[in-house]
Amino acid sequence: MQKANPKDIIEYTVALVSDFAKKHALSTTQAFNYLDRYQAIKFINQNYNIAHTLSFNDILEDLSLYCKNRGGSL
After folding, report:
1. What is the signed CA dihedral for 41, 37, 32, 10, rounded to 10 degrees?
2. How many angstroms separate the CA atoms of 34 and 36, rounded?
3. Sorting pLDDT into bands at 50, 70 and 90, what band is 4?
4. In this predicted model, what pLDDT tens digit does every residue of 19-65 receive, in sequence order?
5. What is the C-alpha to C-alpha distance for residues 41 and 67, in angstroms, rounded to an integer?
6. pLDDT at 6
7. Is the dihedral angle over the CA atoms 51, 57, 62, 68 positive or is it negative?
8. What is the CA radius of gyration of the chain?
């Protein structure tokens, strides 16, 4: 499997955090802190090769569930 370009991962993560913030009526800082607290940022970085093939709606739902399973309340 080819290793992902770090720039692509960063751009994808920034876009996800922004859309997650909009979806949950949070600032981007709040969204990032929430996703980081429940290790979703790490999850995205580790699974970028699969995650970026999903629709944004699917991955946003998955991230919400991922965080909820780790104690998040959004």
Report:
1. -20
2. 5
3. confident
4. 999 999 999 999 999 999 999 999 999 999 999 899 989 999 999 99
5. 10
6. 87
7. positive
8. 12
Query: What would the 3-class secondary structure string for the chain be?
Result: CCCCCHHHHHHHHHHHHHHHHHHCCCCHHHHHHHHHHCCHHHHHHHCHHHHCCCCHHHHHHHHHHHHHHCCCCC
- Residue found by looking up tokens 């994808």 in the block: 12
The residue type of 44 is I
Residues present in the chain in total: 74
Whole-number pLDDT of residue 34: 98
Phi, psi of 27 (to 5 degrees): -75, 160
Q: For residues 37 and 26, what is the distance between their CA atoms, to the nearest angstrom?
A: 15
- Token pair listed for 58: 């699917």
Query: In which element (H, E) is residue 3 found?
Result: none
What is the model's pLDDT at position 1? Answer: 56
